[in-house]
Amino acid sequence: MMKAKSLLKRARRGSEFRGFLKKQGILKEVEARTLKQAVKLTHQTGSPCSDGWSTGLS
């Protein structure tokens, strides 16, 4: 039972952070930067995308 409570707390924590970013007016900017970093990391490590196709982005 304790495990389920901690998972619920974690789920709320993320949504509260997204709400905070949205109130600050920077949610879209943060999401875009995060996506760019993920694509760059994937490209640098040579890992294929989840569907097996290369993004072609550099």
SSE layout and pairings?
Elements: H1 2-24, H2 27-45
Please outline what is shown here:
The chain is mostly helical.
Biggest beta-sheet profile: none
Helix content, binned percent: over 70%
Shape descriptor: flat
The tally of beta strands, per DSSP, is: 0
Secondary-structure-derived class: mainly alpha
Strand-and-helix sequence, N→C? HH
Assembly type of the shown chains? single chain
Uncertain runs with pLDDT below 50, 5 residues or more? Answer: none
* Measured distance between first and last alpha carbons: 46 Å
Counting DSSP H or I runs of 4 or more residues, the number of helices is 2
**What Rg do the Cα atoms give?**
16 Å
Mean pLDDT: 76
Tell me the β content: under 5%
Please give a structural write-up.
By secondary structure, the chain is mostly helical. It has a domain of 32 residues. Helices cover 72% and strands 0% of the residues. It has 2 helices and no strands. The longest helix is centred in the first third of the chain and has 23 residues. The chain is flat. The termini are far apart.
